[in-house]
Structures are given as structure tokens and as C-alpha cells.
Specification:
Layout lengths: L1 H17 L10 H21 L2 H5 L4 E9 L2 E4 H10 L1 H10 L3 E7 L19 E5 L3 E13 L12 E15 L2 E11 L31
Parallel strand pairs: 1-7
Antiparallel strand pairs: 1-2, 3-5, 4-5, 5-6, 6-7
Amino acid sequence: MAKRSAYLAALILMTVVLAGCVVQPPFNEALERQAVITALNGWVAGVEEYDVNAMAGTGIMAPAFRLNIGGTCKTLGRLLEELKEDELNQAFFRRDRGYKIRLDIDGAVDGGVDKHEVDDIVNAWTIVSIDARKAEVTGFFEVYETYNGTVGGPYAPYWRSDSGSIKINLIRLPNAWKMESMLLKYGSGNYPHASIGLDGTGSSEPTGFGFGTYTGW
């Protein structure tokens, strides 16, 4: 009887493992806050490197993800389709034109003055709320770009091509925090002191996340 019970217990355990059932670890707010920031910074790096998997892969996006941008709501499927369509162009401009982009996330603007510094490597996300199931994170963003203009030519300085605000809702899964929704708003009305420097506006029909202007060259 004992042997049969042990066999049944092993069978149940194997069934659970094969089904992909994973026990949710205990909630530690300090650790989870860092996990959220790490996940979002990985997404920023994906945008800068045009890594489609890092931007919109299963490691960062929940299946039901929705992007609201420029009055347009995009499903994850549509977002991935647009990002993949641009991969070859992005690779060309990065390789042959020296194109680089910096997506800088700013928090509350210190002292009410925006410094507009492209070398600001710290992303100042604001975690509005977080619990064992979900989190809401906000920030302001600036987009900086550069390219060398001609093959082998000198690099032009970075220019600030856009600004706006971002709000992201995430859900906590056993192995990761994943984005469930993102709201992007472009333009001076959505960025503190945007009159200092370029007044970014974004596009009414943006491709992907709408960051970058390389398609206009």
C-alpha cells in the first residue's frame, strides 16, 4: 500500500511539473520593486538596440498586452508585426549609418528644471503602486538620436527628437514581471518644461512604439 501511495505521489508531482505549474514565491516588496525596475530597464535597452525580443517578447510582455499610442490601440500581435517589419532597416542604419538612439526615462524633474542630458544613463522610473499581483509605473521620456550622415563620416552630435510621458501596468507571474498595458503620450503638454529644447510631437500613426525618426532620412 505504501509503495502504491508513493507511486501516486510521484505521478501527481510529475503531472504538476509537466503542466508548468510553478508556486508563486512570497512577496518581498523591496525585491519586487528592484525586479520591476530591472525588467523595465531591460525593455529600454531593447528599444535602444532594436532587439525585438527584449522589446516585445514573451519575457517582458503578457499575452494580452495592449499599447495605447497616438490614439491608436495596438495588440501585442500587431506591435510585433510592426517591429519585425522594421528589423532590416534598423540593422542597416545602425551598421552603415552609425545610427544610435537613447531613450531616457526621467522622474519628477529636479527643481523644476530639465537638464536634457543625453549622457544621463539612469532611468528614473516612478513606481506608483505595487503589490503581490500587479504594479503601476510611470515616467517621462526623452528620445535622443545620432547618426554619421554618410558611410565612414564623422558622427553628428545627439539631438533631442522627442519627449512625452509613459505609464505601464505590469502583472507579477511566478518567474517575471510582465507588461499588461502601456500608455505613451508625446508632445510638450506631456513633458515638464518641454519648451527647453525640442518640442516633440510624435506621429499620428507611429510604427511600433514610435521612438526614433530614422525613417525620415
